[in-house]
Amino acid sequence: MSVFPKGFLWGGAIAANQAEGAYLEGGKGLTTVDTIPHGANRLPVKLGLEKRFTLREDEYYPSHQAIDFYHRYKEDIALMAEMGFTVFRTSIAWSRLYPQGDELTPNAEGIAFYRDMFAECKKYGIEPLVTLCHFDVPMHLVTEYGSWRNRKMVEFFTRYARTCFEAFDGLVKYWLTFNEINIMLHSPYSGAGLVFEEGENQDQVKYQAAHHELIASALATKIAHEVNPENQVGCMLAGGNFYPYSCKPEDVWTALEKDRENLFFIDVQARGSYPAYAARVFREKGVTIKKEAGDDEILRNTVDFVSFSYYASRCASAEMNAQNTSAANIVKSLRNPHIQVSEWGWGIDPLGLRITMNMMYDRYQKPLFLVENGLGAKDEFNAQGEIEDDYRISYLREHIRAMGDAIADGIPVMGYTTWGCIDLVAASTGEMSKRYGFIYVDRDDAGNGTLERKRKKSFWWYKKVIASNGEDLA
Fold this sequence. Notes:
Belongs to the glycosyl hydrolase 1 family. It is a single chain. This protein is of the alpha/beta class. The protein contains 15 helices and 14 strands. Strand 9 (about 340) and strand 10 (about 345-350) form a beta hairpin. Helix 3 (about 70-85) packs parallel to helix 5 and helix 7 runs parallel beside helix 9. The longest helix is centred in the middle third of the chain and has 26 residues, at about 200-225. The radius of gyration is 21 Å and the shape is globular.
């Protein structure tokens, strides 16, 4: 018998800004991601260190066409259905519904697009799992209001969220509020549309913005349950525990602090209040959170489940610094000598997934949903014109086994969506050559290619995994 429960949701995940393209079609407005270029200037823009509010003619912006999912979603969803998906995670582009972000009424063309897409999923018996904000903020909200540093964003976001819950009621019942909410600490512009002024306390800006997002998330959760009590709302964490680099007590303490830094947001969203340790963190960083009356009450609207991404575990020591941490990931980590790494330097650690899941369930006592997991790799065609991505199959096999072990440990897990089930633009680097999918998309890092879709070897393997409810991993 499979360890995976009956009705376990199997599928894959994408994000609107990495797949849809059509960046100004259908009434859509410009978003933060649309201003993040490919190439050397990408990182300073993502970190909020370089203001980039207008497009430049000498740069390439991968989100503008991406893989053209906007026009090809029927073809792509049919391929997902062929694999047997029972869940498909995607996001709504906020600026398709509210092009500026602060309008009072939504863009009907944007609503029609997503209704058609979700209906296409339902046609095949696929449940949409929908993220409201996946690293894209309408650009007008950045230039006019300063994005999430401004309390007015709560009103704009909750209006948008209510529109989604009402417009897609009956089509979508699984929702996530903010994708990888903890990434705003590490990549403030791509994470939350934050840009810094010279000399200001960046921690103050980030944690005040976080407070606004946490209030918005709690209100959205409340609205979702009011619109339809059947709605289930989750938070979303960029997951992966920090291991102490050694058993030196200082290393153990540093790892604990790093874990708390990442889990802070989920502590609030899943438990309904600020954790005790936050007071000292804020004091030491010179942060004073400005709250409004009733905020603490609002935060008690906790999520129904905890979703997370897991690609790699991390390593921390008291001697961590810019010179000895890996530049491979936006969340800094020491290289773990006991595990292998991917082509992009991400540690491959299936047991780390089981460790992370046990920690999270011990901490929150809410069902878990693994909504991103996958291996970015360069895929090459063989002489027969096929992609034999055994390295991807191996990675996914071992992580599915680890997830099964966590379920056997007693953890309730709702489902599993692999990241980038179809090749898309990598959020970290803007590359197409960093591929995750079961489906190859003919497009290169410069935006050239036919966009033709082609099944990889892993496509057939994952189809077999789903058909056996995770029992046949060979």
